[in-house]
Predict the 3D structure of the following.
Amino acid sequence: GHLYNFVAYGVDPETEIIDMDEVRRLAFEHRPRMVLAGYSAYSRRLDYEAFREIADEIGAVFVVDAAHFIGLVAGGAYPNPVPHADIVTATTHKALRGPRGGLILCKEEFAKPIDKAVFPTAQGGALFNQIAAKAVCFREASTPAYGEYAHQVVRNARAMAERLTSLGLRVVSGATENHMFLVDVRSIDDELTGKEAATLLDDLGITLNRNAIPFDPRSPFITSGIRIGTPSVTTQGMKEAEVEHVAELIARALRERHDDVALKEVKGEAGELASCFPPYEAQFPGHV
């Protein structure tokens, strides 16, 4: 059945940054019971204060979906939504580097209804191995080393976006302030699609995904963009020099995608770079 009526807000066509004037206009027009801030492919910071003000003006609950950036918040590398939101939801994987799962933080007045909505409405028996893994994840996120990881993730994303820009690729909104960004592959040439770019790069050992960009004329299954994130390579130990090299490989592969010799060279360089930063030690007992 129909449970919710979502009203979407967007980004400014020129800046590709969330248009808070549009958010306010839509909020007053539709009077939602909940105002939601969050993203899966937005490279800028959220204006929590502005969202909070709008929610208060219409008497709505303010919820932040922090799934994609809660790992940066935990490391002090991205603004914390908790002081501003009524409810914060997040995953424990992604940049937080924990097990697949989620977490919900809320003000006391929302605790009982949320608990009931989780169990028995949505959740069955608990997975205690997952709970234990979350505890390990939260413990790790409280360490100085984790804080350095989170800040390096942001530095790497910025360095990679700037290098791609210098090579002539268009980064959506012009920059990144978190762990990810979108690239408009039409800046390579008009015929290239996000699907083609992502498939090609994956074949060469560079994993990312196709992603729609703002006002994309192509379908979500084809797209005009690719989404790039840096938590994984940062966890493996790469820093600015290495991710700039990856950016160069991406640009070269896309520009010379019809040149088999060039693609073979890119694949070799990508493999050589990855071999210098193995995700696990050779004697890691989890290898199968």
About this structure: The radius of gyration is 21 Å. The longest strand covers residues 34-38.
